[in-house]
Amino acid sequence: MTRSTPLMLLLAATFSAAALPAAHAQAPSAAARSSEAGSAPVLVTAAQWEQMRRDGATYPMFAKEQARAEKMVRAMMKAGIDVPVPKDKGGGYTHEQHKRNYQAIQAAGALYRLTGDKAYATFARDLLLGYAKLYPGLGAHPQGRGQIPGRLFWQTLNDSVWLVNAVQGYDAIRDSLTADERRTIDDNVFRPMAQFLSGTPENFDKIHNHATWAVAATGMTGYVLRDPVLVEQALMGSKRDGSAGFLKQVDQLFSPDGYYEEGPYYQRYALAPFVLFANAVERNDPQRGIFKRRDGVLLKAVDALVQSSYGGYFIPINDAILDKGLDTEEVVAGIDIAYANTGDARLLSVAKQQKRVLLSPEGLQVAKALADGKAKPFAFVPTVLRDGPDGTEGALAILRMGGEDGQALVMKNTKQGMGHGHFDKLNWLFYDNGQRVVTDYGAARFLNIEAKAGGIYLPENNSWARQTLAHNTLVVNEQSHFGGDWKKGQPLAPAPLLFAVTDDTQIASARMDGAYDGVTFTRTQALLSHPSLGQPVVLDLLRVDGSKPARYDLPLHFNGHIMDVGFKAQSAVSTRPVLGKANGYQHVWVDASSEPGTEARSLTWLLDGRFYTYRFASTAPSRALIGESGANDPSFNLRREPMLLQRVDGQASTTFYGVLEPHGQYDGTAETVRGANSRIDRIAHYRGKDASVLVLDLAGGQRVALGIADDPSRGGSHEVSADGQRWNWTGGWKRFDTASGKGGK
Q: Is 266 tagged catalytic?
C-alpha cells in the first residue's frame, strides 16, 4: 500500500535532511507538518477502513471482535474520563487506569472508523486532551524502576507499550479533529513521548525487547505525525547511523529459523512491536521490503513461536510465566499479519483457537478466510530452531510424537538469552497427554499482582528460579553454571551435535564447555516408540568429564503424585532437613534419601490419569534424594513442587542415564486402573572405546538398544561389546531392536 503523494514528497525532503549529522537536522514544525501532509490515517488507510466498515459484519470473527471492543469502550465512556497523576507501581490503580486508557483510545479510534459514530472519536479525543494537560508536567515516575523510569508508568517499557497502542487509535481519529486539537495532542502527548523514548539511548539503542517496544512506538508515531526524523531514528537508532534501531534488532535478535534469543515467552512479548511496526513500515515504506528482510525472518518468527508451544502454552524457558500462550494479544497480531503476508492456511487454525482477530485489514482477511473454511491444521512436528543471528550459537530441539497433545521432548541447548536467561545449559522438559510432566519453574513472579512485590520479579527469581538446581541439568559442586553470571554465560553456547528423526526414533545431542572450569558435559536424548510400549519413552544419556573429582548433582523436576519409590530410602519424618545453603539449595527440603549405589532405581508418579516411571542410574556410585521446593521462603513466594536428585561424589567423570516411560490409565470416575506397572523390566548402560549403548529390556521379551557415539556429529564406525553381545554401527547413532538375550546387529 503506497502513501499519498504529499506525504511521499515530505518524507523525501525530510530524509534528505536526516542524512545530515543529527545536531544540524531539524524537523518541520507541527503546523508545517499538518498543513503540508494533511492528517489522513497512515497506519491503516481510509480506503482500508472503509472496506472493513462495509464488509466486517459479514464475517463472524470480525463482527465479534468489534462487538467486544464496543462493549469495552461504552463502559469506559459511561465511567467518564479518568487520566490520573501517576503514582502506583505495576498492578496499582493508576498503572491499570493508564493501561485501560490506551486500550480505549486504540479501540475507540477503530470503532469511529468502523461505525462512523463521532462519539467514539470524541471520547478518544477527550482522553488524549486529558493527557495533553497531564504529560508536559510529568517527570520521572515516583515508583520508577531501573536507570530510566517511565513517566506514565514506573518503567519506560510500559510507556512504550502505551504509545504503540494509543498512536494507532490517534491515527484513526486525527483527521476528525480541528487543527488546534491536533496541534495540542501532537505537541503535548505524542511528540514529547516519542522524543523521551528516542532521547534515552541507553534504552532506545539496546538490542533487547524493551528497545523493540521503544523504537516501534517512536517509528509509528513518526509516521502519524509526518516526522521522518522520528521514523529514521526508530529504524536506524538514535544517531540514525544504523548502529542500533529496528533494523539492527531484526538482524541480531532472531536466528535464521526465527528463534528469538530470549526464548518463546519473550518472543511472544516482542512479537507485537516487531510485526506492528513492520506492518507500518510496509504500509508507508514498501520499498524497504521489511517482511522480506533476512529471508522473511519476521514471518518465520511467527511460525517458530507456534512450534514452541504445547497445549496452547509456550514452552517456559528463561524468565517465563507459565500461563502465557497462543491466545495472547501479541500473538493475535502476529498470526493476522503473518497470514496476510503469506496466505499460510495453517495459521488460520491458530486464529480459530484464539477466537480473536485484529480490527485491521489483516484481521479482516483472517476472519474472511475462516468464514470461507480455508483453515488447515497447524502441524506440530519435530523441529530444531537454531539460535544466534547466524544460527551458530546453540539450538532449541523439540522432538514430537503423537500430534499436538502427544509427546514433546524439549532440549534447551540454546545460548544464555541475555539478562532474562537461566543458568541451565542442556536442560530438558517433557510433555505428554496434554500435561507438563518434566517441568521448568519459569520465573518467580506474579505479574502485576501488587501483593507480590508489586508484580516485579521476586527475590526468589534469583535465589531459586534462575539457579541451575531449579532445572533438569548438571550441577557441579553446588554451583550454578557460569557462577550465576549471565554476562559470562552470554558468549558461551552449547554445540549441537545431532538432530535426527525417523518413524520410531527421534534423537538430539549437544555438548557444553565453559559452564564450569575444567568440566565438559554431553547430553543425548531420544524419543522412541515400540509396539510393546503403550506410549513413546524418553532415553537420556549425560556424560560428564572433569579435570578433578567433584560433586555432580542431576535434578529432575516432575509434576504429579508419587505412587511408588522403587529404591530403599530413609524418610525424614520428624525433621525436614534443607539440601544446602546457597545457589538454590537453600530452597529445597529433603524428604528421603538413599545410600550410594550403582544399581538402577525407579520412581513412579501419577498425573492426570497416566502413570510415569523414571528408571535412572549412573556409572559411579550415586545417591538418590527426593525433595520439594519451598524451604527458606518466609513470604510463601515459591510453589511447592517435587524433585528427584541423583548425586555422585568424588568422581572426575561419570555418566548418568535413564528412561522415562508413560504408561497405563487411572479413571477416578469409574474407579478403574490398567497398565499401572511399567512395561520396562530393565535399563543398562555399556561402554565402548568411543561410544555408549543404552539397553531396554521390555516386558514380553523384546529388547531395544540405542548406540550413541561420544561425538555424534562425526562419522566413523563404532563397536560396543558386553555380556556376550556386540553392537556395531557407523555414524552418530543406531537403534537395535531384538529379542532379549540376542546380540546387536
A: yes
